[in-house]
Design goal:
Blueprint (H helix, E strand, L loop, with lengths): L10 E4 L6 H31 L6 H27 L6 E3 H34 L4 H4 L2 H26 L9 E2 L6 H5 L7 H36 L1 H30 L2 H4 L3 H21 L2 H20 L1
Parallel strand pairs: 1-3
Antiparallel strand pairs: 1-2
Helix pairs in contact: 1-2, 1-10, 1-11, 2-3, 2-10, 3-5, 3-7, 5-7, 7-8, 8-10
């Protein structure tokens, strides 16, 4: 195979946002604030769930794990994107690119699985409340977490083992804010049609299946609440509509990017921002910070810290 006189790509150029310098500064400030709020919010949730005895329940255990995955997923892409907003040459090494894609699909695949586990937890709580503690035991919860990480690892490895050894010798511009499989694969010096179909089947179909399972579970929960109490329906509808919104913002871009034909949405940076920057911030707000029990635990934990500091 001719690699253009032996020239081999060692780094890629990220196109980033094509905007004027003033708008780049606006993006820098905005995304910096969002990332800071994401890290602070998710870290606060993890600390509160760990330290507060009132939150040692299956739902909050899963929420704490979700916060950890959100923080990791955002950290894989956002700091690099923020730094690139202030640099003229937005480059990333080929191995840095591979690492970014590996961890993004690891945390993303694990989060999709964990969201299904959380929906199952809510289903059991609403539809089988008398058996909730028996069903949602520590063994099952630990199994959910291990399963989510295992599926995430299998999901990313199944794609990366086919991508990491691809030869790159020609174009090296990635029209996005970070490395992602559809765009990187198309830069290879070999025919990648089969690999593109595999990515569609692996990432796209998995995203679609998870999204449909979540919608079905929410529908069953709403139907169960409606049969039991008309007054509880409005509260459940308000809560689940917020959940469906943030789930749609996470899965919608994933489905469009990975399940759609590669040429249609692969370079849409707005979609990429939604599932790597926006939803890691919205998840703690929608799932946790709006929760009254969580707010009370945070206030109590803060009061205890203040009191211990004063006594010291």
């Amino acid at each position: 195979m001719d690699l253009k006189n032996g020239s081999v790509v060692t780094e890629f150029i990220l196109q980033g946002f094509s905007a004027g310098w003033e708008l780049q500064i606006v993006f820098f400030v905005t995304f910096s604030l969002i990332y800071g709020a994401t890290v602070l919010g998710n870290a606060l949730i993890m600390v509160t769930v760990t330290c507060s005895s009132t939150l040692h329940s299956p739902m909050y255990f899963l929420l704490g794990n979700l916060s950890f995955l959100d923080m990791c997923l955002s950290t894989v892409t956002t700091p690099k994107m923020i730094r690139d907003l202030l640099t003229e040459h937005k480059t990333i090494s080929i191995w840095g690119c591979m690492a970014q894609m590996f961890f993004m699909h690891l945390f993303g695949g694990a989060e999709m699985t964990l969201l299904i586990a959380m929906a199952f937890d809510r289903y059991v709580a609403v539809c089988k409340p008398l058996h909730y503690r028996k069903i949602m035991n520590h063994r099952l919860l630990n199994g959910f977490v291990i399963l989510s990480w295992t599926i995430g690892f299998i999901h990313t490895m199944s794609q990366m083992v086919l991508t990491v050894n691809l030869p790159f010798c020609g174009p090296r511009i990635i029209d996005n804010i970070f490395c992602d499989l559809p765009l990187v694969i198309k830069l290879a010096c070999v025919e990648t049609y089969t690999l593109e179909l595999f990515v569609i089947a692996d990432s796209g179909l998995w995203s679609l299946i998870c999204f449909l399972l979540l919608l079905v579970s929410y529908t069953v929960i709403l139907a169960t609440v409606q049969r039991r109490s008309s007054r509880g329906l409005s509260k459940a509808l308000s809560t689940l509509s917020a959940h469906i919104t943030v789930v749609s913002l996470f899965f919608g871009p994933c489905i469009l990017i990975y399940a759609w034909p590669f040429k249609s949405f692969a370079s849409n940076k707005v979609l990429a921002v939604f599932y790597t920057v926006i939803t890691p911030l919205l998840n703690p707000v929608i799932y946790t910070l709006r929760n009254q029990k969580m707010q009370e635990a945070m206030k109590k934990l803060g009061f205890q810290n203040v009191s211990s500091t004063q006594n010291f």
